[in-house]
Structure formats: C-alpha cells, structure tokens
Amino acid sequence: xxxxxxxxxxxxxxxxxxxxxxxxxxxxxxxxxxxxxxxxxxxxxxxxxxxxxxxxxxxxxxxxxxxxxxxxxxxxxxxxxxxxxxxxxxxxxxxxxxxxxxxxxxxxxxxxxxxxxxxxxxxxxxxxxxxxxxxxxxxxxxxxxxxxxxxxxxxxxxxxxxxxxxxxxxxxxxxxxxxxxxxxxxxxxxxxxxxxxxxxxxxxxxxxxxxxxxxxxxxxxxxxxxxxxxxxxxxxxxxxxxxxxxxxxxxxxxxxxxxxxxxxxxxxxxxxxxxxxxxxxxxxxxxxxxxxxxxxxxxxxxxxxxxxxxxxxxxxxxxxxxxxxxxxxxxxxxxxxxxxxxxxxxxxxxxxxxxxxxxxxxxxxxxxxxxxxxxxxxxxxxxxxxxxxxxxxxxxxxxxxxxxxxxxxxxx
Length: 412
Ligand SMILES: Cc1ncc(COP(=O)(O)O)c(C=O)c1O
Description:
By secondary structure, the chain is an alpha/beta fold. The chain has 2 domains: 4-29 and 291-407, Aspartate Aminotransferase, domain 1 (Alpha-Beta Complex); 36-273, 3-Layer(aba) Sandwich (Aspartate Aminotransferase, domain 2). The chain has helices at 4-9, 12-16, 32-44, 54-73, 88-101, 122-125, 148-154, 177-186, 206-209, 233-237, 263-270, 272-280, 290-316, 346-355, 368-376, 398-409; strands spanning 20-21, 80-85, 109-113, 133-137, 159-165, 190-194, 213-217, 227-232, 321-323, 336-341, 358-359, 361-363, 387-391. A 7-stranded mixed beta sheet has the order 2-8-7-6-5-3-4. Strands 9-10-13-12 form a 4-stranded antiparallel beta sheet. Helix 12 (272-280) packs across helix 13. The site of pyridoxal-5'-phosphate (PLP) has 12 residues, from helix 5.
C-alpha cells in the first residue's frame, strides 16, 4: 500500500504550492501522469478523430477508450454510457433542454432538492418557462437533512424526474441515493443525481444505485477539467440528443456530445488509471478493472477518515462554532466540513487563514438555495458570507490539519 508520502509524491502541485491546499471540493490536484498524458497527446497526437490515417485512428482510440474507462469507473458497463463534456453545469443544462423537448406522457412535474448545487437546480427551475411545474424538496432545518417522507409527499404520477445531490458540497452528508431512486422509480419518475461532491471520496456505483442519470466533474477527481454524465440505455432512449440532425439518434453518447469532448482531456482521463491502480496496490500497467477502482476508493476513505475525525473533533470543542452538516464522523459523511461562527463572519475567518497560507474559502459555493434559507433562518450571517469550508482529500495530512487548527485557535 502506498504511504501518504508516496501518494503526495504523485502530485507535484502539493510540493510547490505556497498554500496548504484544503479547497479540494473546488477542484483537486492531478497526478503528474495525468498532466504528462495531456501534454504528450497535444505534442504527439493532436489531429482530429474519425479519419483513416494512423494518427487519427490513435486519436479516435483515445476518445473511445476514455469513454470505456469512465463507464467502468462509474460501474455502468453494460447498462448505459457516460457523456463527456466540459462541466457538470453544462451537462445538466443540456439534459434539461432534452427533457423539455421530449414527450412527457402526462408527466410535467419536476422535484428539485433544496440542498442542490445550482448546476442541478437552475436548469430544472428554468423549465417552469416551458410548461413544467417545479417543486422544491425542502431540507429539514433541524437536522439539515432531506427526508424521504417529504419527497414521497411530492411524488405522483405527474412527476417526470427528481434532481438531487448524492452529497451536498456544503453539508458533506451522503444522501441515501438508492432509497431516493427507489422512491422516484416507484412513482415512475427518473432521477438526476449530482455526484460531484461524492466522487472524490467514494467509488461511484450507478449499477447498484440504479441511477438513470449520474454526473460528476472529473477535475474534482484528480483529472482534467471535464465532466461525465452517465445515463442508462432506457433513459437515453426517451430523449433526442442535441448534436447535429444528421448524427443518428442511436449514436449514444455522441448524439449528446455537441462539439465532442476535449480530446487531450480524454488522454488525461485515461492516465488516472495507473494512479488508481497504485492506490489499490495492484499492477499499474494492466487494463482498468472495477475491483481496483473500488479498492482505490476504499483506501481513499481510510486515509481521509482521521483527517475528518480531527477536524470535526476540534470544531466540536468551540462553543461559538456551529458545524453546518453532520457534526460526527460516519460512513455517510465525507471530508468536506463547513461551519459558521456566532459573531465572526466567514470571510474574516477564511481570509485570516489564507494569510497564514491555508487554502480554504468561504461563501455559498453555489449551493445558493440551501445557504439562502439558512441565512433567512439566521443560521448564517448572510448568503454571500455563507460558511467557512475546509475540504480535505486523501493526499492531505494530519500535520496540515493540525497546522490549520493552530491557526484557527487564534480566530475561533
Ligand atoms: C456539488 C456540485 N455540483 C455541481 C458542480 C458544478 O460542477 P462544474 O464546475 O463541473 O460545472 C459543483 C462545482 O463546484 C459542485 O460542487
């Protein structure tokens, strides 16, 4: 098994950054191999896909293999395909437009979780302009959780789909996506799950969740600035993709990838495999396999656990601090920790930590509706000030967390 020091040696930016990087929910660092693969592709193989000459065939192969790898990474092989695009925001907007153009079969209601990042909220709320009724699935103010019973009250035979996060990028709690999906399916509705805040911490498993649509941003999972949206064959079947009219409807996922994905990005995505294989303790030159992906994420959880424990334990000793999200470590909590201080603004705390070279941040993190309600209820100072967020990944160390805690001692 790789030690934390060995893991850190894969990430050059960690060695050179003047800041301790604890803003990982905004975007992760990449292993050198990923950056090298992007560079090599651009210098050696930068021609268009789809022609018959050798270099073009290599490009075609890279893009095809990247799709296959992401299908495997998400455990979707055989049940659907991942669309590759520039961001989850774009993926959700494209999907919402597809649903607006599709036959509705009497289903014109959409349910959106209030804890959603705006990427998986705004596009659905905007469909109110195109004849849909959009309901908010409100979170419970006491526990800050989404309750299944509240969703069940909103579901009916008019529900087209339910959009919700697997993990809130502010709260850090893992929602029971399997139970939510089961309830939605019971009403005949589809689900669109935002897995962006889940994917850096746990192995995505669309097969077990039976997710119709599941998206995540690859730049938050040690890869290039892209995003993957997995859809099942049945879910694709109901929609017309937005790509050019002469591209056959059945050509999935390309029919849903107008302009195509970044080719050099695809090379970078593929180069994540050796890092995951090394984390899993296996051979780095073999073909990608699902078991190793799961093992790699098991290792990631084990490495993140002590960091999460230390941070929560410390914040729990501060009487003026309220943790916004689960205050205790558990398997249904990831290492993204947000808090507010009774009298000090989040901006003041984050900026002071930044001056001491701790890369954390404050704000609503585009979970605007969640933070807006918390601000209205007096939990936050205001929506823009939001929360202070410390987002840790497996390559962070206890020393780094202890350093931040020493810095917080002067502030909290
Ligand atoms: C939970 C969550 N969903 C969606 C997004 C949007 O992702 P992208 O930047 O790929 O559009 C983010 C980005 O921070 C996020 O944290």
